[in-house]
Design brief:
This protein has 469 residues and is of the alpha/beta class. It has helices at residues 14-27, 40-47, 51-63, 128-141, 156-170, 185-196, 213-218, 235-238, 261-273, 332-336, 347-358, 361-387, 413-422, 453-468; strands spanning 67-70, 74-77, 114-115, 179-182, 201-205, 222-226, 245-248, 277-281, 306-311, 323-326, 392-395, 402-407, 425-426, 443-447. The chain is globular, with a radius of gyration of 23 Å. The chain starts with 13 loop residues before the first helix and ends with a helix. Its cofactor is pyridoxal 5'-phosphate. In the C-terminal section; belongs to the class-I pyridoxal-phosphate-dependent aminotransferase family.
C-alpha cells in the first residue's frame, strides 16, 4: 500500500489530475508492478475527493492498461516496463537543432499539457445526487437479484427505456428485443464480427476521427478507406467492391456536417443491393448546437441493413462502461445461437440507469448538457476568431464535441500537432493523416467537451504562438 499526494499546482478536472498523477507514478516506476491501489473509499478519505471522481480516474487507468481489476481483490498495477517512460526534468533541455518530429513538450515538467481531447466530457455537470438516489433505490427494489448474473442481452427494463428514448429523440425504430446492451465499442464490434463474418471488410470514411479505427483492426476487421463528400454522384463509384459493411457517423461527420438525405438514401440502397450492412455510430448525436437535431440514419432503413450503435459515455460518463446496439431483424436469428457468449455491464448499474431514465432524470440531464456544450462551443469559436483569425478556417462545427480547423500553413498536420505540443497543447489529426495529399491544407481537430474555459482560452493563445512561428 502507498499514499497518493497530489501537488497543489496540478490543473484540470479532479479526475484528470488524479489519473495523470497515478499514471506518472506508474510510468516512472514509483509504483511497482503488482502493487495494489487503495480502494475507492480509502483514497476518498485520504485526499478528500468524491468516490465518483476516483472511480472515473481508476477506470481510465484500467482502459489504458496501467491497472487491472481482480474480482473480489482490488486494482493492481501492471508492470511499468510495458509503458514508455515519461520525460524527467533533464529531458526538457533539448539542443537547438532538434527536429520537430523528435521534440518533447517544452514546458515545466510539473505542468500537465492543455488537452483538447476528443474523448473527454464535462465532468462538472454529472448529476451525482440523482444518480446516487437511483443506485440506492435500484438496490432496494432488486436486493434479491444482487447475486444473479442478469440478462446477457441487457436488462429488459433498460432496453425498454432505451427503445423509448431512441424513438422519441433519435428517430430510431426498434423494439427492446433488437437492443444489445454492451460494455463499449470494442464489445459491440467483437459481437458484430461474429454476426457479419470474421475478417469482414469495412469501408471507413477517409477523414474519420472517431477513434475507433484501431478497435476495428483489433477485432479482425479489414479497414478500407473511402472518400465521401456531398457532391459525390454515386456511392457505388467510391465504395470498393466486396465490402461487408460501411462505418459512418451520419449525424456528426469529421467536419461536423451531417450526411444529406440523398446520400443517406443512396447508402441504404447500396447496402441492400450489395447484401452489406451500414454501421451507424451515433456517439454524440444528441448534441447539435444550431438548428434541429438530425434524426438517425436507422430511421430511414426499410430493408434491415443499418446497425445502430449509441453510448452513455458522451452524454453521461465513460466510467459506466455502457453502450447499446440496435440490430436489424435479419441478424436476430443468428444472435439467438450466441446469447450465452454475450457480456453485458453490471446488471445493477443497468437497473439504476433504467430507473434514472424512467424518472425523467436522463432527459433533464441531456438538456443541461446541451446548454453546457453550446456555451463551450460558442466560446471556442469566439477564441478561434480572436486569436487565430485568418490563420485557420472553421469547417462545419455545428454538432458534437469537437471543431475541425483547416490551417492555412504549408506543412503537414502532424507537424502542426508537434508544434502545438512544444507549447504544451495537445491537438488531434485524422486517423489516416498520412493518406491526405501534400497539396491539401492540413486539418486539426479540437475537442471542447472536457476542457475548462480557462484552459480553452490559454490553449488557443498557445496555438497562435506555436503556429505563427
Amino acid at each position: 500500500m502507498f499514499d497518493i499526494l497530489l501537488k497543489s499546482d496540478e490543473q484540470g478536472p479532479l479526475y484528470i489530475q488524479l489519473y495523470r498523477h497515478i499514471r506518472g507514478l506508474i510510468q516512472r516506476g514509483d509504483i511497482q508492478d503488482r502493487t495494489k491501489l487503495p480502494s475507492i473509499r480509502t483514497l476518498s478519505q485520504q485526499i478528500h475527493f468524491s468516490k465518483n471522481t476516483i472511480e472515473t480516474a481508476y477506470q481510465m487507468l484500467i482502459e489504458e492498461g496501467y491497472v487491472i481489476s481482480r474480482p473480489r481483490s482490488g486494482l493492481y498495477v501492471v508492470a511499468p516496463s510495458l509503458h514508455p517512460p515519461i520525460p524527467n526534468q533533464h529531458a526538457f533541455n533539448l539542443p537547438k537543432d532538434t527536429q520537430i518530429s523528435n521534440m518533447k513538450v517544452l514546458q515545466s515538467p510539473h505542468e500537465a499539457p492543455i488537452d483538447f481531447s476528443l474523448l473527454e466530457i464535462d465532468s462538472e455537470s454529472f448529476p451525482l445526487q440523482a444518480w446516487k438516489a437511483c443506485l440506492n433505490e435500484s438496490f432496494s427494489y432488486n436486493s434479491g437479484r444482487i447475486h444473479q448474473y442478469g440478462d446477457n442481452k441487457g436488462e429488459y427494463a433498460l432496453r425498454l427505456q432505451i427503445a423509448h428514448y431512441l424513438k422519441q429523440s433519435r428517430g430510431v425504430s426498434c423494439s427492446p428485443e433488437q437492443i444489445i446492451v454492451g460494455t463499449g465499442m470494442s464489445n459491440s464490434l467483437h459481437l458484430l464480427s461474429k454476426l457479419i463474418g470474421q475478417s469482414a471488410r469495412v469501408a471507413f470514411e477517409k477523414n474519420a476521427i472517431a477513434q475507433v479505427g484501431d478497435i476495428f483492426t483489433q477485432n479482425g476487421y479489414t479497414v478500407v478507406p473511402f472518400p465521401l463528400s456531398e457532391n459525390e454522384l454515386s456511392i457505388a463509384e467510391i465504395i470498393p467492391t466486396n465490402i461487408d459493411a460501411v462505418y459512418v457517423t451520419p449525424s456528426h461527420r469529421p467536419s461536423g456536417s451531417p450526411l444529406s438525405y440523398a446520400i443517406r438514401q443512396e447508402l441504404i440502397h447500396w447496402a441492400y443491393h450489395n447484401q452489406s450492412h451500414i454501421i451507424e455510430d451515433d456517439y454524440d448525436g444528441e448534441f447539435r448546437h444550431a438548428g434541429k437535431t438530425i434524426p438517425s440514419l436507422q430511421g430511414l432503413d426499410q430493408h434491415g441493413v443499418v446497425i445502430y450503435i449509441g453510448t452513455f459515455s458522451k452524454a453521461f460518463t465513460p466510467a459506466l462502461r455502457m453502450n447499446y446496439m440496435v440490430l436489424p431483424h435479419p441478424l436476430l436469428p443468428k444472435l439467438q445461437t450466441m446469447e450465452r457468449t454475450l457480456s453485458s455491464p453490471s446488471h445493477m448499474d443497468q437497473l439504476a440507469m433504467a430507473l434514472f431514465m424512467e424518472r425523467g432524470h436522463w432527459y433533464r440531464h441531456i438538456r443541461r448538457m446541451r446548454n453546457t456544450y453550446r456555451r463551450k462551443h460558442e466560446k471556442m469559436l469566439q477564441l478561434i476568431h480572436t486569436h487565430l483569425g485568418s490563420l485557420v478556417q472553421i469547417e462545419g462545427g455545428g454538432a458534437g464535441l469537437h471543431i475541425e480547423l483547416t490551417v492555412q500553413i504549408a506543412c503537414s498536420a502532424e507537424m502542426l500537432k508537434e508544434l502545438a505540443l512544444t507549447k504544451g497543447v495537445r491537438v488531434y489529426t485524422t486517423q489516416q493523416a498520412e493518406l491526405i495529399p501534400n497539396n491539401k491544407k492540413p486539418k486539426i481537430y479540437l475537442g471542447f467537451g472536457g476542457i475548462t474555459m480557462k484552459n480553452m482560452e490559454r490553449g488557443i493563445q498557445l496555438l497562435k504562438e506555436a503556429w505563427i512561428r
